[in-house]
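Need the bound structure for NAP, inputs here:
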Amino acid sequence: MPEEHRAACVVGYPIAHSRSPMLHGYWIDRYGLDAAYRAEEVRPEDFAAFLANLSARGYVGANVTIPHKDAAFRLSEPDQRARAVGAANTLWFEGGLLRSTNTDVEGFTASLDAAAPNWDKRTHEAVVLGAGGAGRAVVYGLIERGVECIHLVNRTRAKAEAIAASFGLAVRPADWRDLPRLLDGGALLVNATSLGMSHAGQLDIDLSGLADDAVVADIVYVPLTTSLLAQARRRGLATANGLDMLLHQAVRGFELWFGRKPEVTQELYDLLAADIEGAPA
Ligand code: NAP
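Answer from helper R.:
Posting the output first, comments after.
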C-alpha cells in the first residue's frame, strides 16, 4: 500500500545554493516514495508566519538554513541537541507540536563512524578548530560520544570560552599558537572554521605530530578536498570531509518526514560531489 503524498522543504534566504533538494530528491526516487521536497525562499521578516502555516502549506516538516536557524530554534520545541547548539536545522510535527533538532551533531559523528569505525574507542582527546555554530555542534557530538577532553581553538577566544561555559570541563579553550603542542601524538583533529573554503583563507597546519592512526575531519565541503585533508591523506591518515557530514546530517529529517531511514551510498556521494565540483568557483 503506497504511503499518502507527503512534502517537506528547505527554507532559507537565499536558497538557490542549497543542495538539499538534490539530496532528498535522490532518496525519494530511489525508494519510489509518493513524496516531494522543495526549496522555499523566505525572507527573515516572513519566517515566523511561514512556520506558523507550515502544515497548512502541506508540509510535514522542513530543513532550515541560513539565516533562519536561530529563529527556528526559538519558534519550536527543541530536543536536547538543538538546545545544546542553540540552533535548529530540522523541523517536524509530533503530537501537534512543531519539534526541532540539530542534525549537524549526528551528521558529524556519523561521518567519523564511516571514515574510521570505532574512532571513539581510541579517542580520549581531540582538537577542534572553530567555535562558530558548526564548531558548537561538533564539540557537542564529541561529548556525546564520550571524548573526555576537547581543546577548542578559536581566533576569538571568548567564543571558545562561551562553549566551555555551556558544556563544562571537557572543553578547554586554546589558542592557535598552542597547536604544535596539542597535535603532538593527537588522535583527532577537526576543522570547523570556514578556513579552507574556496574564497576564504587557507589553513596552514603541520600534521606531522599526529599519531599514525589519527583521524582528520574537515567540515568544509567546497572544495571537497581542502589542503588540510590533502595533507592528512599524504600522511596516510583516515579522513572525513564536509560532504560526508552533509549527507549524514540529512538522514534523520528524511526518516522523520517520510518514514524510511535512507542510506548514504557511494552513488549519492558521487552525485553531490559532481555537483559541487562542477559549480562555478
Ligand atoms: P560561523 O558561525 O560563521 O563560524 C565561523 C568560524 O570560522 C569561527 O570559528 C571563526 O572564528 C572562524 N574563522 C572565520 N574566518 C577566520 C579566519 N580568517 N581566521 C581564523 N578563524 C576564522 O560559521 P559556521 O556555521 O560555524 O560554519 C563554519 C564552516 O562549516 C563553514 O565553512 C560552513 O560551510 C561549514 N559547515 C559545514 C557543514 C556540513 O554539513 N559539512 C555544516 C555546517 C557548517 P571567529 O569566531 O574568531 O570569527
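Comments: The chain has two domains: 6-102+249-278, 105-240. The mean pLDDT is 95.
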